[in-house]
From TrEMBL:
Residue spans crossing the bilayer: none
Highest taxon of source: Bacteria
Name the record gives this protein: Bacillithiol system protein YtxJ
Organism: Chryseobacterium polytrichastri
InterPro entries assigned: BrxC (IPR022551), Thioredoxin-like_sf (IPR036249)
Organism ancestry: Bacteria, Pseudomonadati, Bacteroidota, Flavobacteriia, Flavobacteriales
Length: 125
């Protein structure tokens, strides 16, 4: 991998999968996540795998998660692979699409959302 790929996130770079993420890869996965929000708050991180800013925000957010003792229910959506699901989230929850974006859902409703450097674990705690 070249120097520039390391800095700007070359396409060959395989992101390390973190165990705290639940992936959303289908409308059924999304529905299950929203159903879980009736028991406790959940968070959905919408990530563009081709965007350097999104990668940086994701890394910083994951560091926050790794440095907390709080148990949170987090979901991950790859926007490039699953754009129709992102559109469904925007439509169903009334939250304008942004990337990267973190949406907190409670009782089936979006109660908080942020994008870029405003994304923080404190939104869900």
């Amino acid at each position: 991998m070249s120097f520039f790929d390391k800095i700007f996130g070359g396409k060959e770079e395989k992101p390390e999968e973190k165990s705290f993420w639940n992936k959303i890869e289908s409308e059924e996965d999304l529905q299950k996540a929203i159903e879980n929000s009736s028991r406790h708050k959940i968070g959905i991180f919408k990530h563009s795998t081709s965007c350097f800013i999104s990668k940086t925000v994701l890394r910083n957010f994951e560091k926050e998660i790794e440095n907390t003792d709080e148990k949170v229910d987090l979901y991950f959506l790859d926007l490039l692979a699953h754009r129709p699901i992102s559109n469904k989230i925007a439509e169903d929850l009334g939250v304008r699409h942004e990337s990267p974006q973190f949406i907190v859902i409670e009782n089936g409703k979006a109660i908080s959302n942020a994008s870029h450097q405003d994304i923080s674990l404190s939104q869900i705690l």
